[in-house]
Amino acid sequence: MTPNQLHIRRSDFTNDFIFGASTAAAQIEGSAKYGGKGTNIWDYYLQKYTEKINDGSNLDIAIDSYRRYKEDVKALKDLGIDSHKFSLSWARILPS
Q1: Which residue, 2, 59, 79, 92, is the most exposed by fewest CB within 10 angstroms?
Q2: Are 46 and 59 in contact (CB under 8 A)?
Q3: What are the extents of the domains in the chain?
Q4: DSSP state string for 1-64
Q5: Rounded CA gap, 69 and 65, in Å?
Q6: What does DSSP assign to residue 82?
Q7: C-alpha–C-alpha distance, residues 16 and 25, integer Å
Q8: Secondary structure element (H or E) that encloses residue 84, with its range
Q9: Residue closest to 27 by CA, chosen among 1, 53, 7, 3
Q10: What is the pTM of this model?
Q11: How far is CA 36 from CA 16, 42, 77, 93, in A?
Q12: Are the C-beta atoms of residues 70 and 63 closer than 8 Å to each other?
């Protein structure tokens, strides 16, 4: 069976199975200069070594979950996700 032929449904799992998703701050948070966040090692690294990222992007925006969290939570709900693990940058919690 190829991946395109594989059809997994929620009903294939026990009723107590928890479907979850997780994200990391550097992948989704963005807003490096918004909301009082300080600079962290990843901000510094991507500013100094721009050639390390194929498209030249950085963490200034990412997908901007910091400001769009309500949309993100709605998307998780619409997907039927039961649990979501997320992280915040320490530079947002302790900016200096």
Answers
A1: 2
A2: yes
A3: 23-93
A4: --GGG----GGGS-TT---EEE--HHHHT--TTSTTPPP-HHHHHHHH-GGGSTT---TTTTT-
A5: 5
A6: S
A7: 29
A8: strand 83-85
A9: 53
A10: 0.72
A11: 40, 16, 29, 9
A12: no
Contact predicate 96/32, CB 8 Å: no
The amino acid at 51:
E
**Token representation of residue 72:** 């993100």
Per-residue pLDDT of the chain (96 residues; tens, 9 = 90+): 676 778 888 899 999 999 999 998 888 887 777 788 888 888 888 888 988 888 888 787 788 888 889 999 999 999 999 999 988 889 988 988
Q: Would you state the structure tokens that stand for residue 47, as one six-digit string?
A: 């500013």
C-alpha to C-alpha distance for 7 and 47, rounded to whole angstroms? 42
